[in-house]
Amino acid sequence: MSILRRSCRVFFFAGALAYFLCLTANPQASPPAARKLKVYISVDMEGVAGVVTTDQLGPGGFEYERFRHFMTNETLAAVKAAKESGTTEIVVSDSHGNGESLLIDEFPKDVRIVRSWPRHGGMMAGLDSSFDAAVFIGYHASTTNTRGVRAHTFSSANLTRVSLNGNAVTEGEFNAAFAGALGVPVIFASGDDAAMEELKSRLGNIETAETKKNLSFHSAETLTPEASCERIGAGVKGALARLHDFKPYAIKTPVTLEISFKNYMPAQMLGYLRSVQRVDSHTIRFVGRDMAEVSDFVDVVDGYSPDLAP
Questions:
Q1: Which of the four, 32, 47, 135, 276, has the lowest number of CB atoms within 10 Å?
Q2: 294 lies in the same domain as 174
Q3: Beta carbons of 236 and 229 less than 8 angstroms apart
């Protein structure tokens, strides 16, 4: 055997021995685990396909039970699309009315659902900085918008304007600011044409699914539930495919909140609080350290009643 061949054989055995020793020293070694992808889905009802009046929106309406299914199916379309795009963890927030509209038995067993009120974070309860993205289903336009089906901000019965740092906001923009404070971007929303235009004008080029065209506060030209679900599924997939294009919607702190009421009495009484300034006969101003504090204040204003009982 030549010296060259003997040297090659020595190097071969030395390399093989080193590889064997490496394996036996760390027998549990394995490829790094795939990164978890977490998505938060906040669900309202006014923006669901077919919704036009109170007949669909509450337990007293003759179409409510059917539309609970349609609301659930639109949410399931988003869940399915997220899972098919690699999402490993999903939290769904039931954020309409009494917070008990979604049919939770129709969801996959690994999805967690936030229900009922009160809860810190309001429509975004359960969201934290570990989430990669937020999705809005069934959202509507703001109370200051002259267009939009069932357009309102938090309370169609009591409020005429809600603003953050001087800008009138939709529920979507308010919730996006809450998410943005946690570093979570909103990447997709569904609802009527006015709602989607309003959101995109503030949040930028997010993916949207238009479920209907508004004709008036109580009328729309709507997609069918099946077509709406298809459009939502495609939109969520498109958003997650370009997840890195989205940035959190963060606003300056401290946050100045203004709320205008239809009646003067709430503004008068809330103005007795040292932390609240009465701006005019129907409007109050509150300055919060961050969106979490502002969100809690809104929930107290919108949800408190002297006759509350457990």
A1: 32
A2: no
A3: no
Query: Beta-strand (E) ranges in 122-261?
Result: 133-139, 159-164, 167-168, 186-192, 207-216, 219-222, 255-261
Our measurement of the distance from residue 24's CA atom to the centroid of its chain's CA atoms, rounded to an integer in Å, reads: 48
CB 300 within 8 A of CB 122: no
User: Among 39, 303, 51, 288, which Cα is nearest to 174's?
Assistant: 288
Q: What is the value of pTM for the model shown?
A: 0.89
What are the tens digits of pLDDT across the range 123-135? 999 999 999 999 9
Q: What percent of the chain has pLDDT over 70?
A: 89
The domain containing residue 59 runs over which residues? 38-155+170-245
User: Comparing C-alpha atoms, which of 144, 138, 213, 147 is closest to residue 172?
Assistant: 138
User: What are residue 93's DSSP bridge partners?
Assistant: 42, 114
What confidence category does residue 28 fall into, taking pLDDT thresholds of 50, 70 and 90? low
In a domain, residue 13? The reply is no
